[in-house]
Amino acid sequence: MAELDTSQSGGKKKGKKHGGKKMSTRVDLTPMVDLAFLLVTFFMLTTTFSKPQTMEINMPVKDKETKEEGQAVKASKALSILLGADNKVYYYLGIEDPELMVTGFDKDGIRKVLNEKNRTIRDLIVIIKATKDAKYKNVVDILDEMAITDVKKYALVDITDFDLELIEKANL
Amino acid sequence: MPKVKVPRKSTNIDMTAMCDVAFLLLTFFMLTTKFKADDPVIVDTPSSISEIKLPDTDIMAITITKDGKVFFGMDGKYNRERMIEKIGARFGIQFTEEEVHSFSLTGSFGVPIANLKQFLSLTSEERKNEKIQPGIPIDSLNNELQYWIVYGRLSNPRTRIAIRGDGETPYPVVKGVMNTLQDKNVNKFNLITDLEVRPK
Q1: pTM beyond 0.80
Q2: Nearest to B53 among A30, A44, A51 (CB)
Q3: Which residue among B29, B46, B168 sits closest to A44, beta carbon to beta carbon?
Q4: What residues of chain B lie within 8 A of the CB of A111, using their CB?
Q5: Would you place residue A11 in the very low, low, confident or very high pLDDT band (cuts 50, 70, 90)?
């Protein structure tokens, strides 16, 4: 393949006294292969195979006029989750005079609670509020828990003073 | 006992086939490769079970670092050119052709608009210095991110917005970014995460 047949087929021998030696045109391809593999390695290492994963979130439309109406949430169906410092998760059911509980992000933590509430309460609505000590990771984790536990309705809202007081008072 | 004659074979292997394979692979990788975007900062995104892939093109990425700096990046060379011209017109800054070109090749950046001109005159090595890129201001008084978002979307209406935040970022910063997005009527955006196995 790589060699060309340059053997002269007679006829021209007359002119050349030295009767030209038949030079092999066989090229050593090894360096070329080396180079090609070097480049292959380079491209293999620099290429990005996996596209990053994303999580889609839809936020409610921020409109000053509709804000007042707001969707009233039935107190008995609302589970509030507060994200605190040090990966702590506080939660309470209902709105008035709630009993604050604390848990974590591990398997038997908030997931268990969500699973149980989701089973026992129809049309559960989870309200997620993050304090200023919460990390971004906590928020993503809790949104992820919603997907895992299959909670249909949840909202990410601003924390209120009432919630902060609750956390402080409970001192968990 | 007669000697067993081992026929001497030439060790000259024909490299042609190997060469063919190597170049075939090379061509494949050259065509499929998409160079990693040159990010000014290292961001360790949190993981989620979401399996939606981020599209390759038409992405506006807002990067948030651990210490709360905000970076902005958009894909598409021509989109970026259009964007900086609009930003220049809005803030009364005249960008030279070289600066526009330099900007069109820049990935993510985190400089206030006032420092943009100076930033564009630096080499990519100098830009790696942390002090050069303090992040894009997102305070309510001086929110420059909103202009980038608005003019970015004007430059490429099909663009999607993705937030790439570090897991350790304090939530108020992320909230600031989300509020900015909502103020600009962007209510649908993506959070870039790593893949995690769905628990049983």
Answers
A1: no
A2: A51
A3: B29
A4: 199
A5: very low
